[in-house]
Amino acid sequence: LGLGPGLGLLLMAATTCAAPGPTRRFSRPNVVLVACDSLDGRLTFHPGNQTVDLPFVNFMRRHGTLFLNAYTNSPICCPSRAAMWSGLFTHLTESWNNFKGLDPDYVTWMDLLQKHGYYTQKYGKLDYTSGHHSVSNRVEAWTRDVGFLLRQEGRPRVKLTGDRRHVRVMEADWRVTDKAVAWIREEAVNLTQPFALYLGLNLPHPYPSPDAGENFGSSTFLTSPYWLEKVTYEAIKIPTWSSLSEMHPVDYYSSYTKNCTGEFTKQEVRNIRAFYYAMCAETDAMLGEIISSLRDTGLLKKTIVMFTSDHGELAMEHRQFYKMSMYEGSAHVPLLVMGPGIEEQQQVSTVVSLVDIYPTVLDLARIPVPQNLSGHSLLPMLLGKAEGEVSHRGPRPPWVLSEFHGCNVNASTYMLRTDRWKYIAYSDGVSVPPQLFDLSADPDELTNVAKKFPVTVHSLDKILRSVVNYPKVSSSVRDYNKRQFIGWKQSLGQNYSGVIANLRWHQDWLKEPKKYENAIDKWL
Q: Which cofactors (predicted)?
């Protein structure tokens, strides 16, 4: 299937974002974004792609552009999505945790597309506005500075369901995929205006574990034999772990609260990773349904298709599952783009992040790009132009920023990723030691070389502080957490002790409830 350079000229016009002129006679491309949840971006290229068969990701690689170094701007659902939908870094959206996102009336890139003549349609998981997720999720985030250590998740485990004919394991995702496919086949095909379609998937996020307490922490990797057969067990890498005593203090807190500090056999770890990869294969099949319906209706040749994820999944790397970490498994996301005019079979090594989607989509639609965005348009690179050749806001910076302020991590975290280095600063930059990884020599991030390269640390920290005054932001988050907790506690009145004891940490809390309540009182 050749997508060809058909609309290349009109797309080049888009990079200049000129006022509406003669180019208006060309039709603008349709835009489809499929965003899943928790897919490790390293599975889209070698050697990660040796572990599982992802035929539709591979299709997009052949017919489009693959970004080898794409990152989330905050490795947790709501803050990441708030950044993607707003084009702004997390310290600007103030989406500090899964409970705090954008205001419901915030103007997203899709709202701007609609305002400029696009027909817009959304299906599935959005999760970029405030007020969602469990009580446990927000209370764990608010109390991360309290002097206690409690397991907040179920122990990661696997579960096999159905037989070799059981394809639709994640039924809710298949239902929204079916709706999106029906919309393409029955509605989109008849539109006289360009359209923008968003499909949000829950997979490959782990499933709830009912024994893990209030609203069930999600620690179960669930799949069927049908999907497990897509995984190459021999290619699964068993991650190297530091001893608990050698772990960075924030990593130890994360591993403990995620219930990962106990003993795990190699077979357990291999199975968790295999089941996770199988869940990624099921996700790929849903992407495939969208691509197939666009191809069958003849819309593919005039549609830009993008595929990404809100963050990755550690799948037992660094003795953790889930995300909330700046390690590659958690922070590296897939980003593939194909469509008319997009360079085919292109791999881009430039560091990019999810805030770049907002200006890119506007650029594709030839809508003026607001000047206040944190992101930069990817369009010059998608068209195979020299990096930074055409930009409204000067050259693209040689770094990306990610930050984290939520649960399972006991310090605000800031990551600056450049071509070679990953620098991670914490809290006020003094009370918690930083981390520095040389990703060219140490892709598995096993050796913190911050003490070995103090000049590099100093220069990266200086860049980081020029982007965000991180000690000040960390202090603001601490104040916010305390205010929110006090308001929540007061709202419960006499019920406070009973409610707080039975959140996701109930198994540990109920052993010594007075001790933990006293720790909170001391913090307050």
A: Ca(2+)
